[in-house]
Structures are given as C-alpha cells and as structure tokens.
Specification:
- The complex is a heterodimer of chains A (297) and B (290).
- Chain A has twelve helices and no strands.
- By secondary structure, chain A is mainly alpha-helical.
- Chain A has a domain of 201 residues: MetI-like fold, CATH 1.10.3720.10.
- Chain B has a domain of 125 residues: Rossmann fold, CATH 3.40.50.
- In chain B, the strands form two sheets. Chain B has a six-stranded mixed β-sheet with strand order 6-7-8-3-9-10, with helices on both faces. Chain B has a four-stranded antiparallel β-sheet with strand order 2-1-4-5.
- In chain B, α5 packs parallel to α7 and α6 packs across α7.
- The longest helix of chain B has 19 residues.
- Chain B is globular, with a radius of gyration of 20 Å.
- The chains are: A mainly alpha (297), B alpha/beta (290).
- At the A-B interface, α1, α9 and α10 of A face β6, α5 and α8 of B.
Chain lengths: 297, 290
Amino acid sequence: MTSPDMNPADVSIMQTPGQQSPNGFKSAAAKAVSKAASPWLLPLIFGVGGLLIWEFGLWATNPERFLLPRPSEIISVLSEDDRGVDNTIFESIFEASRTTGFIILSSLVVGVILGVAAALITTRFRATNEVITPLAVAMNATPIVALAPIFNNWLGLTSPRSNQAVVVLIVFFPVFINTARGLNTVDPNQIELMQSLASKPWTIIRRVRIPSALPFFFTALKLVSSLCVVAAIVAEYFGGSQSSLGSKIITYAGFTQYDAAWAAVLAGSIIGIVLYALASVAERLAMPWAHRSWNSP
Amino acid sequence: MTAERATDNPQVSEEGLQDSMDTLQDSMESRQHLLGSVAAQGVSKVFLPNSTSKVTALEDINLHISPGSFTTLIGPSGCGKSTLLRLVAGLIHPTQGVVQVNGKPADQARKDRDYGMAFQTASLFDWRTVRKNIELPLELMGWRRGARQQRAAEMLELVQLPEFADSYPSELSGGMQQRVAIARALAFKPTLLLMDEPFGALDEMTREHMQAELLHIWEETNTTIIFITHSIPEAVFLSTNVCVMTPRPGRISTQIEIDLGKRTDDTREREDFFASIVKVREALRSQEST
C-alpha cells in the first residue's frame, strides 16, 4: 500500500504528539558536539586566524609601515604619548570613544523612536502615508552625510548636535521603511479574526501588527547599529567635538600617525560590534518564540 | 420566518416606562429563541458597484439557519461562499437585503461577539503559546486571568491537546494547529461558529479525524455551525443541511437536508451516505449544464 492517504507518520504525530520529535533521528554524540560548539567558536577561530595572517603576513613581506601597520604596532602605539595633549593615545581614544559613543547611542534612540512612530502613524492613518513616505524617500535620497557641514552651520561647528542630526537622519529611514513593511505584512485572516472579535484599530496594531513587525524591526535595528557608527564618524570629520573618533582619525592621519589612526578606527568598529550584539540580544529577548524549536528543552 | 420575528421587534416608545420594559422583555424573549440562528433575506453583494469592473458576488440569497444546525456551503471556486460567510460575520455589508444573526443585524452580532471564526489557515499568533492563543478572545473581552486559564484548559481538553498548552504554534503539526484555532474560536462559547474551509489544507487522514472531532465538539457544545468546503463527502458527512451554490452571480441553487443520524466511521461506508453524495453531486452538476 503506497496510498498517500495512509501515511503512518502523520497518524502518529496526530495521536501521540510530542513523542517523536524530528530530532529523535540525530545521534546523541552529534548533539553534544553541536551544543559544545557555541555560536562564538567559529567566528573566534576566524577572527584570531585573520589577525595572525595580518601580523605575520606583514612581518614576512615588510611593506612601508605607513601603508598598513601590524596589529602589534597598533596595540603598542596605545601607550605612547598623544601629541599636544597630556594623555596617552589610549586615553585620548578612550575619551573620544565616549564622546562618539554618546552621540551614536543618543541619536540611535531618537532615530529609532522617530522611525517606529512614523511607521505606526502611516499604518494607522493611511492618509498620512501619502505625505510621510515620499518625504522620507526624498530625505533618504539626499546624501545626508554631505549635509554635515550645513548642519554645522545651523547647530554650531563644535556642537555634537550637528553630528547627532546626521546620525538621526541616517537611522530613521531603514527603521521607518522596515517597520512599516512589517506592520503591513500581516496574515489577513488574523486581521479578520480580530475584527470578528470587535477589536478597535489600535487593539489590532498592538496585538497583531506590532508582534508581526518585530522581525522586520530587528533586521532594521541590526542594520542601523553599524550604519550609525559610519555616519557619526564621517560627520565628525566635518566638525563637532575635538575629542571624537572622527576628529582623532583626521588628526592622527594628518600627522602621519597611521597606527594611532588605525587604533581609533578599531575603537569605532568595537562600538559597532557591541551595538550589533546588543541588538541581537534584544531580538532574542523580544521574540522568544522565534528561537524555540523542537530540540530545545 | 425567523427574520420577520426579529425585524418587527417593537421600538422602545416614550409612552411609558412600563411599556418599554415590557417590549424590552418581549424582544429579549424572542431573541432567546433566535440564539444561534442566522437569517439572510434577499441579500446581494456587489463589489466595486460604480466601476466598469464591478462584480456581483452574490444575488438574492435567502437563507434560514436554525439553532444548533450544521450547514455547509458548497460550490465551485468563486461562487461567493466566503463572501456569504463574511456577510454573516458582519465583516462586510450587503449591497441589498438584510443579514441577521441571533435575531439582530450581523454587524451588531459582531460587536457583541456572538460568533467564533476559523479559517483555512489556522492563523494562530506565532508569538503566543497555544494557551495564550486560546485566551486571546477572552483577554479582549476583559476576562480575569484565573477564569481565562481555566477556560483555556477546558478548551484544550475539548480538542485533546492539553499537553501542548505551553508550546508555540510552530511546534505543532497542521492538524493540531487547526484544532487550536477551533478551540480559540469556541473559547468564549459563542452560539455560532463560522468556518471557512478549515480542513482544506490537511491531508485526507487528518481531515477525516478532524471531521469526527468537529462533530464531537458540535454535539458537546450545541453550537450552530456554518462551514465552507469544496469536498462533497466532507459536506455530507458533517452537515444537517447542505447549500449548493452557483457561481457568477453567486446564488443558493439547492438546499439538501442530510439525515444520517449519529456519524461514526462506518457512516462513510453506508448506502445512504453515498446516496446523499450522489444527490449533492447531481445538484452541483445540474447547474453546470445550465
């Protein structure tokens, strides 16, 4: 009997649920290995390997030092005195990271709030969609980083406000577009079900649309968590605090201290990585259902 | 006749409090008889009536469904079955005619949460556990937590999934998800259950199992059910009343009463089961030739 109607597997799932998980076929040894190999292991091996190749590749070929310093040189420069300031380079870069980090974090929060608010408003009040979306698209088509000198003029050359304005604008668009998409990518039956239960539009947004939009929102959040670092540092090239990563990179590079400039760039990427990791953790916490599967306890 | 009873509900007059109390009493008593009933009178539905691409989805539908019955709407794709179901649900409004549920306008019945609904896709909320999915209508109705949990447990018992209370929908098979959807639709014990091809996506074995379970639930809860299907055997096995529909514009061409007594697995192999199938099939065929 090979009738498709008589599938014993289906029957067993229907009648004795839970006893046979798909994972039952996986051997215990394979399970143990995959459990021990935490998600960090592979990237760690890759990262350390990359650094080793960088270090010893340059040591072997020995190019001019200003083209690309070795990782060990970048680390050792940190303890040197920073020219013109009463600090080591490490202290200068640490201070600059705090300034830039604050600009990034504050703008990220404001940009995300604005993006989500715009997405909610265009979803709830359809008419506003006709106004807000073209405006946002036009804004996004503008080279926002190129506006940095203009914002300096408006908000003060040494004020962090102009840098923040650039980052907020950069963050806003991906968050707005993705969240709006998520709010509108909803199973129409779920909407009908809510309407059949006499739900008001805001109830539907809160109970159905927002949870449906979470995966889209977190995709945007991860995207902007690195984008905002780039935006902040490039904006700082044009003005803002003298003690910021962008300003430091320009200064070090101007004095041909390329190893120090590299150290400042790495500080920027550390901020980006930390933000990305935070976004990933937040995603897991906010969407426990998306990370639970048959093989979890 | 059910519709007439409902429409001539006397208006509350200003003449005297006693009078209006009496009439209110009357209307509540007449409503009591109508609980679980559905009546459609001369209903038409035209989509995009003012455009060149206007579509007459339904024309002159007259339908009376008595409390506790199991009515199936069957017909080819595009004959307006789902439109009719959504009219009964008050989710869309008729272009002409009146739809009454429990003796009141369909939209009012929707606002009063008089019916439950289930679809072809289970449409469970991924982010809620099975228990929380079933509790959703109760949350919307403002039930307290303890009462919600108790009812959810009862419903899980009814659909035989108590051990899955804390699972997420993605951890369930298609048939089990559909059972949760039915439990959710019935959680607040509505008098009417509307089902839009709920078993359409299931394999044959699961489907027959679900049909038997639905009948069991129907008997236990005494809910009126309106059920859409494409399957003739399914319609015959489940219903007390099969409405055969014709397409473009959608009409109810024939209504066939099915009297097979209590259904068991053996019912599917009985002479009168096949005879009813033939009846429904011929009713569907006859409209094709015209």
